[in-house]
């Protein structure tokens, strides 16, 4: 059944009338628009034309009053003359009727010249200006706002920027919509700010700022919340060796690295992370670290440390959130001076802590991937053609087993932020043979070499190591859910349960092998 069948009144409604009314409305609107654009000069010209049109052109009555009684011949001649005059009068009337249009143009042009000493916009220019102004007003894009704290995540002055920009380049003004609760903020005209904590500051605060571009349709502006961190993440290390290997100097070195790592991560509430710290007994490993998953059910899960950082939730109560083991049978450089025969403690500690933050995989060697519980890192694992080896039902595709040891290009990290930073899929460490504790949980050592060496490479050589997280590594952290910043005033002299290990490289090898 059609609408017409269901409702005869709708079916018989004269659609043409709507069109006529629409056309009439459009005509009236166009006339009003023309009047508003052309101004009162058009009205003056039209009045002059009307006056000229009202002039009479019929003299026959006067002629008859002044003439004596005519003869029959005279009456016939008079009738012929009258018909001739009438035809001439009608022609004159038609001519006069046509004059106002011409007069209208003449008067309008004359008035434009004589009414002002300054140039007056033509109707076309006026319309163009009006349309441009309307388009700019109605379709003006809102400014974007991306607040970021630039300094002070660890200590020192807390500064940042509102991070506002306007697509049309309109001048911007800034307003504090909601003041911080645990400090004060000074907002500069250029959108930068300085935050000063007060006595109630607990490491985390926020304030809300509005950016206005002058649009009448957005008098309230575009708003965003700026997150403030300083000392928001604290570490508690529980040393299990009785102090025999973890001397006071080594403990301080670990604490310093952990403190500086917090300069990369922003949290929404204060967090305390607890670690059991012991001794690594495998002679082939420099160190190892990890954190349990928050669940053993099917799915992709955060580590306990990762979940606490992202949500503030303590998933395991009084138990330690993470585990670190260290092999002090090797020589370690604890400060910024690293000898040629020493390993860089700072670089390796940064590496191990990031594993506990979720930079690790639950994917195992071929034949061992029978479970359905994975890390959130595994969610982004893909093959070179982009397909995922873990199905929507969280099962491993055995057809991808050969990729675990490098076949067909191996496996990659495919998170959007990491891919954008690298310019493509990010190669993961898939050596042949499989290396338990290293494969799949690191960046590929054969890809990231030399000046492109990464903190999260699987193996480390002697001498100064990498102490700066790259754009690729920061991209991976973003994909894992972190709000990431690049510290501007880090004290590090930037010149490595699920347990991940960092192995040493053999002398003379750019990549190295498992020394175990």
UniProtKB/TrEMBL annotation:
Chain segments carrying region Disordered: 48-128, 150-171
Biased composition (Low complexity): 109-128
Biased composition (Polar residues): 53-62
Record field: transmembrane: none
SUPFAM superfamilies given in the database record: Metalloproteases ('zincins'), catalytic domain
Compositionally biased intervals (Basic and acidic residues): 75-107
Protein name: Peptidase
Lineage: Bacteria, Bacillati, Actinomycetota, Actinomycetes, Mycobacteriales
């Amino acid at each position: 059944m059609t609408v017409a069948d269901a409702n005869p009144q709708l079916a018989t409604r004269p659609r043409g009338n709507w069109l006529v009314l629409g056309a009439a409305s459009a005509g009236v609107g166009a006339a009003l628009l023309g009047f508003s654009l052309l101004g009162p000069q058009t009205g003056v010209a039209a009045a002059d034309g009307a006056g000229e049109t009202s002039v009479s052109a019929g003299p026959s009555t006067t002629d008859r009053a002044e003439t004596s009684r005519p003869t029959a011949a005279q009456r016939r001649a008079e009738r012929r003359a009258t018909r001739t005059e009438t035809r001439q009068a009608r022609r004159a009337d038609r001519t006069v009727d046509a004059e106002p249009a011409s007069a209208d143009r003449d008067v309008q042009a004359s008035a434009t010249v004589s009414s002002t000493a300054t140039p007056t916009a033509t109707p076309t220019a006026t319309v163009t200006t009006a349309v441009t102004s309307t388009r700019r007003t109605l379709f003006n894009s809102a400014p974007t706002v991306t607040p970021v704290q630039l300094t002070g995540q660890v200590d020192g002055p807390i500064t940042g920027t509102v991070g506002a920009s306007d697509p049309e380049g309109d001048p911007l003004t800034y307003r504090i919509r909601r003041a911080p609760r645990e400090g004060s903020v000074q907002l500069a005209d250029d959108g930068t700010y300085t935050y000063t904590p007060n006595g109630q500051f607990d490491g985390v605060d926020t304030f809300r700022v509005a950016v206005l571009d002058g649009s009448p349709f957005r008098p309230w502006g575009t708003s965003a919340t700026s997150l403030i961190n300083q000392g928001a993440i604290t570490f508690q290390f529980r040393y299990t060796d009785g102090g025999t290997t973890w001397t006071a100097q080594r403990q301080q070195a670990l604490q310093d690295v952990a403190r500086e790592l917090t300069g990369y991560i922003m949290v929404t509430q204060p967090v305390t992370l607890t670690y059991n710290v012991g001794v690594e007994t495998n002679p082939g490993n420099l160190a190892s670290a990890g954190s349990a998953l928050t669940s053993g059910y099917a799915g992709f899960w955060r580590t306990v440390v990762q979940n606490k950082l992202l949500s503030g939730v303590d998933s395991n109560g009084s138990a330690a959130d993470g585990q670190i083991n260290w092999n002090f049978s090797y020589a370690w450089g604890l400060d910024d001076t690293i000898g040629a025969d020493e390993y860089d403690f700072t670089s390796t500690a940064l590496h191990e802590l990031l594993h506990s933050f979720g930079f690790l995989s639950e994917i195992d060697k071929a034949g061992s991937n029978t479970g359905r519980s994975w890390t959130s890192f595994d969610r982004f694992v893909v093959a070179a053609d982009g397909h995922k080896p873990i199905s929507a039902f969280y099962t491993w595709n055995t057809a991808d087993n050969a990729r675990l040891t490098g076949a067909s290009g191996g496996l990659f990290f495919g998170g959007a932020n990491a891919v954008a930073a690298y310019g493509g899929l990010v190669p993961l460490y898939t050596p042949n043979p499989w290396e338990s504790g290293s494969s799949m949980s690191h960046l590929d050592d054969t890809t990231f070499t030399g000046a492109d060496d990464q903190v999260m490479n699987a193996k480390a050589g002697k001498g100064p190591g990498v102490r700066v997280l790259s754009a690729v590594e920061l991209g991976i952290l973003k994909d894992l859910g972190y709000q990431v910043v690049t510290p501007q005033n880090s004290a590090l002299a930037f010149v490595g349960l699920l347990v991940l290990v960092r192995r040493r490289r053999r002398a003379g090898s750019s990549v190295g092998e498992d020394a175990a």
